[in-house]
Amino acid sequence: MKFNATSRSIKGTSASRRLRREGRVPAIIYGGNAEPQNIELDHNETYHAVRKEEFHSSILDMQVDGKSVGSVLLRSVQWHPYKQQVLHVDFQRVSKSEPITTKVPLHFINGENSPAVKLSSAVITHPITEIEITCLPADLPQALPVDLSEMVGGAVLHVSDVKLPEGVTLAQHGDVNPVIANAQVKGGGAVEEEEEGEGDADTE
Q1: What are the tens digits of pLDDT across the range 23-48?
Q2: Alpha-helix runs per DSSP H in 11-103
Q3: Rounded to whole angstroms, how far apart are CA atoms 26 and 24?
Q4: Among 157, 152, 147, which Cα is nearest to 120's?
Q5: Three-point CA angle 136, 36, 72, nearest 5°
Q6: Which of 55, 88, 110, 157 could form a disulfide with 78 if both were Cys (CB 3.0 to 4.6 A apart)?
Q7: What CATH number labels 101-191?
Q8: What is the pTM of this model?
Q9: Contact between 45 and 24 (Cβ < 8 Å)
Q10: What architecture (CATH level 2) is domain 2-94?
């Protein structure tokens, strides 16, 4: 995926404010064996790009002044506190031969066809919608599917249950294994127990 930028020689708060008034976004490319490079971006192009999920988990071919400066990965976006305005963007250089660690989104599929929903009328919640992985740039997935078709009422899925493509590993932080999906059955068990209790009383 190509992304266009223009070199930026003037730095500082005043210069950044002037750029923003002109519909531009100050940004920086860092990492690798090169010095950080200050660039500027078109605000409208950047605004629409950063709102797309795949832009956050894709290797970008950065074009500066019409020439490719190599592959980069979006690392952070600074937004205005209340305006729909991008204030600053950070990109990191990546090497084809060096692993990267980044977050990718989870795509939950087939939940409506699961026993949890069909048989138990459960509500499947997603406490976590992205996970951190490590891989070579060429192996970076834009998203990871999580198939919920076999999930039953009351079941819980953890990060370790995600099926990872070849060459991709979890960026594990200690023994933490957070929940990514939870099939909550609302009051089913309690209602059944209450009804059984009432039946026993009638029998007596």
Answers
A1: 999 999 999 888 999 999 999 999 99
A2: 13-21, 43-50
A3: 7
A4: 152
A5: 30
A6: 88
A7: 2.170.120.20
A8: 0.83
A9: no
A10: Beta Barrel (2.40)
